[in-house]
Amino acid sequence: MTLGIDIGGTTINLGLVDGPRILKKVQVPSFSKGATLNETLTYLADQIAAFLVPGVAKIGIGVPSLTDPVKGIVYNAANIPSWDVVPLKDFLETRFDIPIFVNNDANCYALGAAVKVGRVLPTVVTVTLGTGTGVGVVVDGKLLSGTHCGVGEIGAIPYEGADYESFCSKKFFTARNLDTRALAAAAAGGDEAAQAHFREFGRHLGIFLSVVMYAYDADCIVLGGGIAHTFQHFSEAMWEALRCSYPYQAALDNLKITAMPDEDTALVGAASLA
Fold first, then answer.
1. Which of 36, 41, 124, 133 qualifies as a FRET site for 76, CA 20 to 30 Å off?
2. Residues 216, 131: one domain?
3. Quick one: pLDDT at residue 119?
4. 222-272: pLDDT as tens digits
5. Per-chain mean pLDDT for the chain
6. pTM higher than 0.90
7. Residue 42 belongs to what domain range?
């Protein structure tokens, strides 16, 4: 049995995992923006201690950042201001005397998604649409990370005066003072203004997915994160923009794009780290 942890900018999910099954899980608020590094580490350790049970053989953690997966060091975590250089593995192994594995949160989500689709497709790319935008890549069932787990950090590529993340995550909606749940309800009810916002989001995401295809030539793209719950409202505009931005029609004809927004996927992936 493994403890999987998914650290986000808004919430932290913890789950006891046995293979692909989540035995028990809990969600707690993420770190406050003004918290110091020591305060965040103490808070995380306290949440682990409260959830840990006998029989847990290892702990896998997904973090929204570049990481050194061998040393378990976190670098410049997105949306966690105090996490610049954090020796997370050493800190938690000293505290709990259990093997700790650390990786980028999008990579963890990618591993979990690959488990759910059966690892039968050669190249599965996941795009998490949450507080930020993360990309994970699994090739032939194995995670493609790079030296610092930076293979999927393409949300930081400059785009329209900012970067793709600013247009392909919750930031797109918060910058316009829009609540995604209320907006989705309005769009489902036929509100044209709400539908227009989702079409604009879908257009930006489709252009971003063309970059994903240029980089990874995926067989399957899995969308996760909170915004993926609204997939039905932006999928048509997303596909239209993708087809206009990516010229290789044969690849698009064989491409599958699906939404898998549940947080269990990232927990399964984090628990699969080794």
1. 124
2. yes
3. 61
4. 999 899 999 999 999 999 999 999 999 999 999 999 999 887 898 999 998
5. 93
6. no
7. 2-107+265-271
Q: Where are the alpha helices (DSSP H) in the chain?
A: 37-51, 88-96, 105-116, 164-167, 170-174, 180-188, 192-216, 231-245, 249-254, 264-271
Same domain, 150 and 234: yes
Place of tokens 């250089």: 85
In this predicted structure, the answer to whether residue 24 has a pLDDT above a threshold of 90 is yes
pLDDT the model gives residue 117: 79
28-41 exposure pattern, b = at least 16 Cβ within 10 A, e = fewer: eebbeeebebeebb
pLDDT tens across 149-193, in order? 778 889 999 999 999 999 999 999 999 999 999 999 999 999 999
Residue 247 inside a domain? The answer is yes
For residues 151 and 65, membership in a common domain is answered with: no
Q: What is the pLDDT of residue 116?
A: 80
For residue 162, what is the domain's CATH number?
3.30.420.40
Dist CA 76 CA 239 (whole Å): 33
* Any domain includes 17: yes
Q: Spell out a b/e string for 157-172, using b for 16 or more CB atoms within 10 Å of the CB, else e.
A: eebeeebbbbbbbbbb
Give one word for 89, left, alpha or beta, with left for phi > 0 and alpha for psi -120 to 50.
alpha
Domain count, the chain: 2
The three-state secondary structure class of 128 is strand
> In this model, does residue 118 exceed pLDDT 80?
no
Residues 181 and 243 in one domain: yes
Query: What is the edge-to-edge ordering of all strands in the sheet holding 21-29?
Result: 21-29, 11-18, 2-7, 58-63, 100-104
Residues 161 and 213 in one domain: yes
